[in-house]
Design a protein that fits this description.
Two copies of one chain form a homodimer. Chain A is α/β, with parallel strands linked by helices and 215 residues long. The first copy, chain A, has helices at 8-26, 34-41, 45-53, 67-78, 93-100, 119-130, 142-148, 163-171, 199-212; strands spanning 31-32, 65-66, 84-89, 109-115, 153-156, 177-180, 193-196. Chain B binds a DNA duplex (22 and 22 nucleotides) through residues 5, 7, 9-10, 33-35, 43-47, 49-50, 52-53, 57-65.
DNA sequence: GGATGTGAAGTCGTTCACAGCT
DNA sequence: AGCTGTGAACGACTTCACATCC
């Protein structure tokens, strides 16, 4: 199986579906229709069925989808049934928040390393904040540590000006996934999964909508 | 002017362009071509020109775009030339990080209020963290405060289970923009600008790509 | 009967290719 | 000559509509 033609938007929606399915499961619901799931997630019913159809036939005609079953299937598709190892690179305000508030992450994501160019400068402040000692490594050690601790995904939380430098180091390591928090487009060779996540972009988007579209 | 047919993706890219233009400006560059801007932002050159064409003609044929000029124009389009008032609702881990690390935000976004259902319980912890007293209001006061402080955009940082409740209160206030940090699809009447920003969704996306697409 | 699964139609966004300006 | 601005071609995603199956 390769699923090479699945739209990115489908993947994002699958995350939403699985989250809503968990809510329904907690409520003790057993079956859900595409129409109902669609409404809860703010999409079209046909869209839900199409999204699922990329991966198989999970429903029963005339009935709907068994919630537990569908939930498990989507989790497998998304790879949420295994643990992913994260590294946070750049332990400034944002990085230390991520480190501190581990519950930002779902259970299957685990922070296994933290890097900063100034480990000594950072370690005291962060340890104090977290209430226990924290190990901060220098990015020089990235390649070695990435291999040893099997880091899957690097979260870049450095200043924007450092992002490409970090990206270059990641390119030479065993890491193949990047979540980029800096407002920079990083250049990577083929074969890497890179997503940007800069939230003032979204805020700009809301501002634009308010400026021109609303009312 | 209404710009009703502009793709959302265009708006996101405009944010990226303006950011890169600022970098070029700092370097002392004066003119940039669509090809060069496109490469830096990881998009197609025709895309850049199309994006700008929605809003006017900003370039000079045979030459390119004057950086300062283009930057100013995009900022005006996005509404970045005015101040936007933000409220943060839900002062847990995420909310207090946003409150604490104001430099997450660009200069034209200003936090003017913070709300939590348990102001008393929250205020001590947060004030200590920030190093000075912080005012935390009860959501009951939302409508009144929204009007008085001219809140433009509410950032929902409550637990997911509370998001819709908060959304309902926003719907009855003068606020028209929402940035939703909870992994929930909130239901709003027409006329609101709502964007979701839940980062484990993006992380799921990276994980999926690693699982199926990369090598 | 009722809800899924899916080809076909429709819509939206991107890329091409070149005319038009400087 | 060079780069923008843009109609037309293309491609991708979404929605429709209905045949299919429980």
């Amino acid at each position: 199986m390769k699923f090479s033609k699945v739209p990115e938007a489908t993947i994002r929606r699958l995350s939403a579906y699985v989250r809503h399915l968990e809510v329904l499961e907690e409520k003790g619901e057993v079956v859900v229709s595409s129409a109902s799931l669609a409404e809860s997630c703010g999409v079209n019913a046909a869209q839900v069925r199409k999204d699922l159809a990329y991966f198989g036939e999970f429903g029963i005609r005339g009935v709907g989808y068994y919630i537990k079953d569908l939930s498990d299937n989507i989790k497998t598709i998304l790879g949420l049934n295994r643990e992913w190892h994260l590294a946070i690179i750049g332990i400034g305000n944002l990085g230390s928040s991520l480190l501190f508030y581990k519950d930002f992450f779902k259970k299957n994501y685990k922070i296994v390393a933290a890097f900063d160019v100034d480990p000594a400068g950072v370690v005291g402040r962060v340890s104090e904040k977290i209430g226990k000692p924290v190990e901060i490594l220098h990015p020089e050690q990235l390649q070695e540590v990435a291999r040893d601790r099997r880091i899957d995904i690097a979260i870049i939380a450095t200043p924007a000006s450092e992002a490409q430098k970090v990206a270059d180091q990641i390119a030479q390591s065993s890491i193949r996934g990047i979540l980029n928090f800096t407002p920079t487009q990083i250049q990577m060779p083929k074969g890497f999964a890179v997503k940007n996540y800069f939230f003032t972009t979204i805020l700009d988007n809301v501002a634009y909508l308010l400026r021109w579209r609303v009312k």
